């Protein structure tokens, strides 16, 4: 059996792609106290049947379920499918236009580097609704996630007294970028991080937002100088998906994946984002990222057990990612982060100015009027 490929040893402070960032999180082994979850928010794009897990969990937790609908998720279908489940369900068409501010970072990337998903916008819409409704402990849950133990969620919610965010641990299919999936699939050592697919947050965290790039949930966890206080407790299962099936997925992930991996490598070294995210840093990190992708491509030719068709899919995705990598510069990384800091201030000011104590229907009307 071939030993797993690992990233080569390096000076701890040298810009380099890392196998894992889990040391940045507080792993909570045991927890006894429980707290009420005020709501589950699901940004749904699949048909209403995909909400079975979320509906069951909401019933067990005794909390409302807010479903932000688009694409194949239709509010009327959601309400019909969940009728009789004993859950207060709010199904909201996530509107293309609302009073949620359009942030400057959204327009910075050229068209071929932009992601085509509306999930970050739906999550931001959900943050605003939760803020106005006064929900203090909220679970973000994707519609392809299954959490079996509701008591773990209650205990995770109680940990929000100490942490701003508590993510559950994925024991199902790993959720990574296409490049990182290919790294794992060719024998590389590759970890996962917490994400908004199964993440509890306290209300005060709604002053952060989801950027419109890949790894938007990693950016949600960042403060101006570093990572918010984040813990891991409980488990969930991510449904299997094919990371190589969508042709342009790797291309549109690359900018966000680079930016997040680079920033979190700085945090791994105990450095602040303001101090270390310089043009010099990004020149070095982008060069390393290119070598990282090249290494995966070179192993792909000799890794056993991969079909010819799958090998072609993986190679196409990796070449697309490398093409995208060459379409942005270190200066553009620095510029994006400066604009992101401005957006954070604008978002915080906007959300703190919203009215509070509203019902969901009143909050939705306020955002869409």
CATH architecture: Alpha-Beta Complex
- Using the CA coordinates, give the radius of gyration: 20 Å
User: Helicity range of the residues?
Assistant: 40-55%
Number of domains: 1
Tell how many strands the DSSP assignment holds: 9
Indicate the structural class. Answer: alpha/beta
Q: Could you describe the largest sheet, including whether it forms a barrel?
A: 9 strands, mixed
What's the helix count?
12
State the end-to-end distance.
62 Å
**CATH homologous superfamily - what is it?**
Spore Coat Polysaccharide Biosynthesis Protein SpsA, Chain A
What CATH calls the topology is Spore Coat Polysaccharide Biosynthesis Protein SpsA, Chain A
What would you note in describing this structure?
- The relative contact order is 0.17.
- It is globular and about 55 Å long.
- The chain contains 12 helices and 9 strands.
- By secondary structure, it is α/β, with parallel strands linked by helices.
- It has one domain: Spore Coat Polysaccharide Biosynthesis Protein SpsA, Chain A, CATH 3.90.550.
- This is Glycosyltransferase.
- It comes from Paractinoplanes pyxinae.
- InterPro entries: Nucleotide-diphossugar_trans.
Summarize the structure.
The chain contains twelve helices and nine strands. The protein is an alpha/beta fold and 369 residues long. Strands 1, 2, 3, 4, 5, 6, 7, 8 and 9 form a nine-stranded mixed sheet that branches.
Secondary structure layout:
Blueprint: E1 26-27, E2 39-44, H1 52-61, E3 65-69, H2 75-82, E4 89-93, H3 119-133, E5 137-141, E6 145-146, H4 150-158, E7 165-170, H5 178-185, E8 198-202, H6 216-220, E9 230-238, H7 249-268, H8 273-276, H9 279-300, H10 308-325, H11 330-352, H12 360-368
Parallel strand pairs: 1-9, 2-3, 2-5, 3-4, 7-9
Antiparallel strand pairs: 5-8, 6-9, 7-8
Protein name: Glycosyltransferase
């Amino acid at each position: 059996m071939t030993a797993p490929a690992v990233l080569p040893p390096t000076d701890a402070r040298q810009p380099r792609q890392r196998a894992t960032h889990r040391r940045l999180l507080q792993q909570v082994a045991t927890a006894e106290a429980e707290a009420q979850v005020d709501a589950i928010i699901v940004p749904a794009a699949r048909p209403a049947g995909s909400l079975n897990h979320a509906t069951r969990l909401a019933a067990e937790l005794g909390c409302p379920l807010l479903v932000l609908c688009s694409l194949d998720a239709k509010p009327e279908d959601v309400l019909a499918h969940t009728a009789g489940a004993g859950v207060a369900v709010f199904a909201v068409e996530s509107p293309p236009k609302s009073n949620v501010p359009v942030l400057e970072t959204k327009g910075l990337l050229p068209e071929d580097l932009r992601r085509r998903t509306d999930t970050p916008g739906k999550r931001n819409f959900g943050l605003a609704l939760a803020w106005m409704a006064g929900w203090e402990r909220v679970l973000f849950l994707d519609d392809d996630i299954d959490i079996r133990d509701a008591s773990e969620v209650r205990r995770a919610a109680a940990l929000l007294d100490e942490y701003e965010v508590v993510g559950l641990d994925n024991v199902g299919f790993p959720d990574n970028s296409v490049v990182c999936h290919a790294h794992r699939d060719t024998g590389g050592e590759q970890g996962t991080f917490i994400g908004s697919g199964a993440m509890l947050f306290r209300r005060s965290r709604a002053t952060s937002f989801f950027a419109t790039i890949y790894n938007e949930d990693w950016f949600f966890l960042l403060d101006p100088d570093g990572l918010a206080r984040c813990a891991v407790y409980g488990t969930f299962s991510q449904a299997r998906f094919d990371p190589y099936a969508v042709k342009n997925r790797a291309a549109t992930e690359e900018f966000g994946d680079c930016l997040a991996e680079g920033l979190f490598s700085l945090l791994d070294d105990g450095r602040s984002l303001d101090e270390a995210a310089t043009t010099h840093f990004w020149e070095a990190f982008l060069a390393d990222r290119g070598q990282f992708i090249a290494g995966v491509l070179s192993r792909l030719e000799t890794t056993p057990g991969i079909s010819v068709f799958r090998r072609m899919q993986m190679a196409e995705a990796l070449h697309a990612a490398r093409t995208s990598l060459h379409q942005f510069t270190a200066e553009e990384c620095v510029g994006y982060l400066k604009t992101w800091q401005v957006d954070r201030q604008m978002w915080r000011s906007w959300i703190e100015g919203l009215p509070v104590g509203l019902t969901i229907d009143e909050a939705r009307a306020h955002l869409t009027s």
